[in-house]
């Protein structure tokens, strides 16, 4: 569990939003290209904290210069205490965003102000459990929920098309992936990320299925490369 | 009047949205850093077209691979025929986005699916008529409207803070400007745009007034530099 910010949300439905991050440890997946492996592969050290403690840290680190908190991971749905954290954030007048792959349901998800479901495409090496995902979509029908798929290759794009057709009512986001999560050559990384983004736009532009989709890069990676905690 | 796309919306409230562009000619402003000067300074050639003609062009050029049309400028509010164009777009099942500085009101603005009001900060050399802008904000209270300010310097940022305080209920976007609209050195342009974006984020992060703002770059300039019609 680490707390950082304020910074901006670099991805998805509230892209650009000024926010604090609470990054939880642990994941039930192990995506080949995970950019947060340190949250679950044992290389990171993580101390679990009580919701009240996290609120204190948010206040201390954020210094009043925020009104939005993003709970990311790992998979934040694995943690029991998050429901109470969400409640406490709301009591403090902060909005709460969450991203999860949609593999573990928690009732507190209905209280989230912006929730991104990000099922993983074939290149991740993971399998989507559609029974679970159907349950998520159904139970979040009244919530401010979107679907987001990270695309590395054309097979991933095909997966995204099928997904969008399965849940046509849910706002849909395509996102470029970062295939080099260790380089420190920022100029090179930026160039390759923008090239990938242009490639993804060209796929989306041709696809009639993606007519109402949004196609986005990861802004934080463009700005800060692979640096952590910004 | 030019039609191009499909491409993605690189700015503001529907960033990443797949869309066609209808770029209208003419502007009542003459911002120092305008990136569409060719629409109003006499260097571009422009033929005015009937709404029906524009619809035909959208169909021909877009080839069915879109469901959203962005009307940009210049200032699209200067054109009488836009109301009918919006109507025809809706009849075709397309959503319509518009960006305007908020200096000329038109009743069709209430029908727009996403409308961005972008008053110009001091660095533009323009003056904001707040009586007019108040009228816009009041009349678009039921619409899906946002405010966006392009920031070049700290004085612009101060202007944006005052604006956000004046209209606290309207979702607020800060955007980096492009101070070199003629270079063809894309790598250099990308680097300087990302540097500016990082600078703008750092201003926004420190400002308590901007707690609920979104801070965004121009995606199309990052991807395509100063190329036109992409
Ligand atoms: S679901 Fe997310 S955090 Fe978990 S392994 Fe995949 S990319 Fe990493
Ligand atoms: S209002 Fe927009 S189009 Fe008109 S001069 Fe200013 S930047 Fe250019």
TrEMBL record, chains A, B:
UniProt cross-references to Pfam families, sorted A to Z: Radical_SAM
EC supergroup of this enzyme: lyase
Domain Radical SAM core: 14-226
Binding site for Mg(2+): 36
Family annotation (PROSITE patterns): RADICAL_SAM
Annotated positions binding [4Fe-4S] cluster: 27, 31, 34
Coiled-coil boundaries: none
Record: residues binding substrate: 8-10, 23, 72
Cofactor note: Binds 1 S-adenosyl-L-methionine per subunit. Binds 1 [4Fe-4S] cluster. The cluster is coordinated with 3 cysteines and an exchangeable S-adenosyl-L-methionine.
SUPFAM superfamilies: Radical SAM enzymes (SSF102114)
Documented EC number(s): 4.3.99.3
Reported cofactor(s): S-adenosyl-L-methionine; Mg(2+); [4Fe-4S] cluster
Keywords per UniProt: 4Fe-4S, Iron, Iron-sulfur, Lyase, Magnesium, Metal-binding, Queuosine biosynthesis, S-adenosyl-L-methionine
GO MF: lyase activity
Pathway this chain belongs to: Purine metabolism; 7-cyano-7-deazaguanine biosynthesis
InterPro entries on file: 7-CO-7-deazaguanine_synth-like, Aldolase_TIM, Deazaguanine_synth, rSAM, rSAM_sf
Gene3D superfamilies: Aldolase class I
Reaction catalysis annotation: 6-carboxy-5,6,7,8-tetrahydropterin + H(+) = 7-carboxy-7-carbaguanine + NH4(+)
Binding positions for S-adenosyl-L-methionine per the UniProt entry: 33-35, 74, 118-120
Family statement drawn from the similarity comment of this UniProt entry: Belongs to the radical SAM superfamily. 7-carboxy-7-deazaguanine synthase family.
Function: Catalyzes the complex heterocyclic radical-mediated conversion of 6-carboxy-5,6,7,8-tetrahydropterin (CPH4) to 7-carboxy-7-deazaguanine (CDG), a step common to the biosynthetic pathways of all 7-deazapurine-containing compounds.
PANTHER family tied to this protein: 7-CARBOXY-7-DEAZAGUANINE SYNTHASE (PTHR42836:SF1)
Protein name: 7-carboxy-7-deazaguanine synthase
């Amino acid at each position: 569990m680490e707390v950082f910010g304020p910074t901006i949300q670099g991805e998805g439905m509230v892209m650009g939003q000024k926010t604090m991050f609470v990054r939880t440890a642990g994941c039930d997946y192990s995506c080949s290209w995970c950019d947060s492996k340190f949250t679950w592969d044992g290389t990171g050290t993580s101390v679990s904290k009580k919701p009240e403690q996290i609120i204190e840290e948010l206040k201390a680190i954020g210094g009043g210069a925020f009104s939005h908190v993003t709970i990311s991971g790992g998979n934040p749905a694995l943690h029991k205490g998050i429901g109470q954290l969400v409640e406490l954030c709301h009591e403090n007048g902060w909005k709460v965003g969450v991203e999860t792959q949609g593999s573990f349901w928690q009732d507190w998800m209905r209280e989230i102000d912006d929730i991104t479901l990000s099922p993983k495409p074939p290149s991740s090496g993971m399998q989507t459990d559609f029974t679970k995902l159907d349950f998520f979509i159904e139970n979040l029908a009244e919530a401010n929920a979107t679907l987001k798929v990270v695309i590395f290759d054309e097979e991933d794009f095909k997966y995204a098309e099928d997904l969008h057709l399965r849940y046509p009512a849910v706002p849909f986001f395509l996102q470029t992936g970062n295939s080099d999560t260790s380089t420190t050559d920022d100029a090179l990384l930026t160039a390759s990320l923008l090239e990938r983004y242009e490639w993804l736009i060209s796929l989306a532009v041709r696809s009639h299925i993606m007519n109402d989709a949004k196609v986005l890069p990861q802004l934080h990676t463009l700005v800060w490369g692979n640096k952590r905690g910004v």
